[in-house]
Structures are given as C-alpha cells and as structure tokens.
Specification:
heterodimer, A: alpha+beta, Immunoglobulin-like, five-stranded antiparallel beta sheet, 9 strands, globular, B: mainly alpha
C-alpha cells in the first residue's frame, strides 16, 4: 500500500532505491513510479546521488572471456537492423517454426515427442501471503509458458483477470493476456519473449476485457518471480 | 569541463551510439564502465561468478534497450548502475560471507561535518558522500550494507545483532537525514 503521507512516500522511494523492500512491495512501488512523474523523478535523483557511493569502489580487472560472452549473446540482437530477408533467415522464431514443423514430422514418423523440460518456474502468491500459492508457472526449454491454477479462488464475475510480466522497469510491464479463473493457460515462446531469473509475473484484477491502459490498473491478485531450475 | 563531467557525457554519447547499432561504442562503454560495475556486483553478491553473470546480463540489456535511454532523466552511468542493481536485487544474490568486509565510509569520522557544511552545489555524486558523513555510524553502516552488499533489513539485523525494529528505525532515520541533507 502506497502511503498518503508525503514524508512516508519519500522514505518509501529511498528504501526502494536501496533495495530494502520485499518483492511484492517493490513491484507495487515500480507500478507507482510508472504512473507518478514526481515520484519517478525523486527515485532518479536518489539513483544519481548513489552513483557517487558506487564510484568510491576501486574498479576491478575484467575477467578474460566475459566480453566475448556478451558479444555472442548480443550478436542475435544486432541482427535487428539487417535486411528483412536476412533477419528472417537468422530469426530464432522462423527456425523455431521450421524446427517445430520438422519435429512434428519426426513425431508422426517415429512416435511421441519427449515432454520439454521446464527451465524456469514461478509460484504466484497473494501479496503478503507466502504460504498461499495460487498459481504455478513453468517455462520450458523451448520458451513455452504454462500457467496452472493451484487452488480454487473466487474472482468477481464482472471483472477480468489479466496476466503480466515485467523483465525490465525501463520497458514497463507487458500484458500476456487475459486468464480464465481456475483454467490453465499455455502461451507460445513467441508471445512470452525471453524469460530471465528474477523476472516478475503477476495477475491483476482489471475492468471487463482487461486494463484500459498498457499497464496494470487494478489490484495485484498473485505475484511471483522466475527461478531457474 | 572537468574530467568526470566529460566522462559522463562520453557515456551518454556511447549509449546513444549503441542504440544506432554501433558495436565499437558498445565495447568502449564496456571498457569504461564494467570494471567499477564488476566491483559493485562482486561486493553485492560475495561471489565472483555470480557477479560476472549479473554484469553479462546487464550489458546484454544495455545493448537491447539502448534506444530507451533518455539523457534528460540522468546520465548513462546512472542508468547502467540502475540496471545492474535492479538485476542484483531481483535475483536475491545477497551474501553474508563478507558481512564484515570494510565498506567505503567505515573509516569516516563519527559524526562528520554537520548538514550545514554539506557542499551541494552541482555535484550530486559528491553530495551523497558529504551527507553520508553527517550520519552517526549506527545509521550510516546499515545503509551502506544495503547499498554495497544488498542486505535486507533482516540480514542487516542478523549481522549486526540488533533487533529488526531498531534497524528499520535507524535506516529510516538515516535516510531522512540524507534526504534533508541532499535537499530532496
């Protein structure tokens, strides 16, 4: 809950910038900062000030091989400015589609396909209720996501439940669509995007049909972060 | 223009060049900024391998999102350190192994200059050091443990063997003092 008192609000931002808040509190503050320019500006000022403390640290020698790993990992992103045919040719989603087609053919010829192993899992819990898991997310090694209900929960019939993820506060939350209460949901990798350790997922209660904005507007029902398996 | 100001402006230009796909600028940004970012990540995680992973992930994010950087909201260096700390905090790579490793600021006198003596003219980065020095050690140290080592309130309380409520109260009192000193 974001306090009304301005002094308390300012302290909350200072605690957030220092990383002292719980994941649930931090997610709530991040949403607040996206909507309140003054609060976001105060957070930016704190970050700029704290840079001075970071600069007191002695720089450390960079390990050999680290730059090469970064180069390899960013090479794919670098292809985005290439011609369309080249982008398509080097597109993981194209090859994922082609591979999926080939796999289907192989399965039809040779028998059942192995079940893809999960590489990330997320337990979504009601805010402040760590002992009450409501949903589980698994992300397979192919990047597909499965959302599974773990408990019966009641939701207002005149509202929608919307699924969100937040990988980077600079990008803001991204909708993964509406969820039918109590029903599992499967999303393809192309819809989910890259998943990383610590990535935030949440379900929020929204007006019928979903949030009218490109961000959550209603209360958080369940929230959790991705853990690598 | 002083050297530090020139460094910050160079960082802004390098990130903007990254947004245009300039790989050489990306490498130069890494050479300029990664050594100190690695120092923060290593101290935060207490583990060289985790620190390298965090740094790698952060620079991948920088390359992918360079187009979202806005220099009017702060310097590129602030943006880079913000991305790194966000990743470190979210991954809960918080170690207690180096809890008593000396922190920058441990050697400052207790207390330092009064808030009125803070030099707050144009240099935000210097101001935080001045203002931290105005805090009593029992306020300053838990704040520095949170910043440099990523400790939660509970971890700070455990490490210093001080009740959790007392630690929260001291940190919030220290942050309030910093806020007043920084005129935020």
């Amino acid at each position: 809950m974001i306090p009304r008192d301005s002094q308390e609000r300012q302290l909350l931002i200072a605690e957030h910038v220092l990383g002292l808040l719980s994941p649930e509190q931090a997610a709530e503050v991040e949403r607040w900062l996206e909507q309140d320019d003054d609060a976001a500006q105060l957070a930016s000022h704190w970050q700029a000030h704290w840079l001075g403390a970071a600069e007191l640290l002695e720089p450390e020698p960079l390990p050999p091989g680290l730059w090469q790993r970064i180069e390899r990992q960013t090479a794919e992103a670098g292809t985005r400015r290439r011609p369309v045919w080249q982008t398509l040719w080097q597109s993981p989603s194209l090859w994922r589609t082609v591979s999926a087609g080939l796999l289907v053919a192989v399965v039809l010829l040779l028998g059942p396909l192995r079940v893809p192993a999960p590489v990330y899992t997320v337990v979504l819990q009601a805010p402040g209720e760590a002992a009450s898991p409501g949903w589980r997310i698994t992300v397979s090694d192919r990047g597909d996501l499965q959302l599974t209900p773990l408990a019966d929960s009641e939701y207002p019939v005149d509202r929608s439940v919307q699924f969100w993820t937040l990988a980077d506060p600079a990008q803001g939350p991204r909708s993964l669509g509406l969820v039918n209460p109590g029903q599992p949901l499967v999303l393809p990798a192309s819809r989910v995007g890259d998943v990383e350790s610590g990535q935030l997922f949440e379900l929020t209660l929204e007006p019928p049909g979903g949030s009218p904005a490109d961000r959550p507007t209603g209360p958080v029902l369940f929230i959790g972060r991705a853990v690598a398996l | 223009m002083d050297d530090s100001r020139a460094e910050l402006e160079q960082g802004d230009a390098l990130v903007q060049a990254c947004a245009r796909g300039d790989r050489r600028a990306f490498h130069q940004l890494y050479v300029n900024e990664a050594p100190r970012m690695l120092a923060l990540a290593r101290r935060f995680t207490g583990d060289a391998s985790l620190a390298e992973d965090a740094l790698q992930d952060t620079f991948v994010q920088v390359w992918k999102n360079a187009g979202r950087f806005r220099s009017q909201r702060g310097s590129a260096r602030t943006w880079l350190f913000g991305l790194l700390r966000y990743r470190l905090i979210n991954q809960h790579h918080r170690s207690r192994r180096e809890a008593f490793e000396p922190l920058p600021g441990d050697q400052w006198p207790d207390p330092g200059p009064s808030p009125e003596q803070c030099s707050l003219e144009n240099d935000q980065r210097r101001a935080i050091i001045d203002c931290l020095q105005t805090l009593q050690m029992d306020r300053r140290r838990p704040i520095l443990m949170a910043f440099y080592q990523g400790f939660t309130y509970e971890q700070i309380a455990d490490t210093l063997a001080v009740p959790l409520g007392t630690i929260k109260s001291r940190v919030r009192s220290g942050l309030k003092g910093l806020q007043e000193c920084l005129r935020l």
